[in-house]
Amino acid sequence: MHNEIEITAELVRDLLRDQHPDLAHHSVRLGARGWDNQLWRLGNDLAVRLPWATESADALLRKEHTWLPALAPRLPLPVPVPQRFGAPSERFPRPWIVTTWVPGAPADRAPVTRATEAAATLATFMTALHQPAPEQAPTGRNRGGPLTGYSEGFAEQLASATELGLIADPDAVRGVWENAAVAPDWDGPALWLHGDLHPANVLTADGTICGVIDFGDLFAGDPACDLAAAWILLPDSGTERFHDTYQPTPDTATLRRARGWAVLRALSGILIGHAGVHGRPGGKPTWGPPAHAALRRLIN
């Protein structure tokens, strides 16, 4: 649910003066308006993230602030490490955080072109992240569990995309999903997962991956959810290199489930992209092209 809050540079400066006055002298400029949060550049090295739309964003920011500082040192790519916490106040009724700034362009605007290098970089990043999580780690709102929990949502998205004429071969898409949904479930330990590796959350520079942002969906579960990113983010020639580099090598069942997650994410991106082209609320026109490319890779 979107309930947008107006955020300005003046508001960000006021919040910093109130709670973190030692940071208030830095320049403030808008970095991005995401699905859940707005990102404001703070000087050269920091950023302020404030929830502005979805009601769930508050809990996601608190989760990042709690867990990401301990995980970040072992990750081989830059990530936005929380530095300060902003408490809700009369001036702004929701929590907010100050993080490190991660340079780069979102992959939905600057896609990967150096497939071999990007595949190895992404696989190395996931290998480092996908380690057993403690029992108190957050869960993934079904993302770490069986795909069957998403069957209704898949059917609705496929029907919508088909009715809009956005899918050329819905039977092929359904076939990938059905094969994934009956694959054996994950029986290993719950692993740390990013949970939301789509092109807007992965940064690129010079044609390869240079950073990963937005860990609000961080959780523990089945790595297939993250492994879907190989089809979503990489050009056609990158998927095999990714699977060769990621450790341990995914088994057949895990790859089947990962393809199911990738189909689900591609359909979502196609619909969000279509809404953006037509100026509808929540739409993002740059999400459509990479989602269509991913779906072609999955069904061919």
Secondary structure tally, helices = 10
Main beta-sheet strand count, sense and barrel state: 5 strands, antiparallel
> What percentage of the residues does DSSP assign to strands (E)?
15-25%
Low-confidence stretches: none
Q: Label the CATH architecture of the largest domain.
A: Alpha-Beta Complex
Helix content: 40-55%
Give the C-alpha Rg. Answer: 19 Å
User: Which structural class is indicated by helix and strand composition?
Assistant: alpha+beta
Protein model, in words:
Helix 4 crosses helix 9 and helix 9 (252-277) packs antiparallel against helix 10 (288-299). The two termini are 35 Å apart. The protein folds into two domains: 9-102, Phosphorylase Kinase, domain 1, CATH 3.30.200; 106-299, Aminoglycoside 3'-phosphotransferase, Chain: A, domain 2 (Alpha-Beta Complex), CATH 3.90.1200.10. The strands form three sheets. Strands 1-2-3-5-4 form a five-stranded antiparallel β-sheet, sandwiched between helices. The protein has a three-stranded antiparallel β-sheet with strand order 6-8-9. The protein has a two-stranded antiparallel ribbon with strand order 7-10. Strand 2 and strand 3 form a beta hairpin. By secondary structure, it is an alpha+beta fold. It contains ten helices and ten strands. Helix content is 40%, strand content 15%.
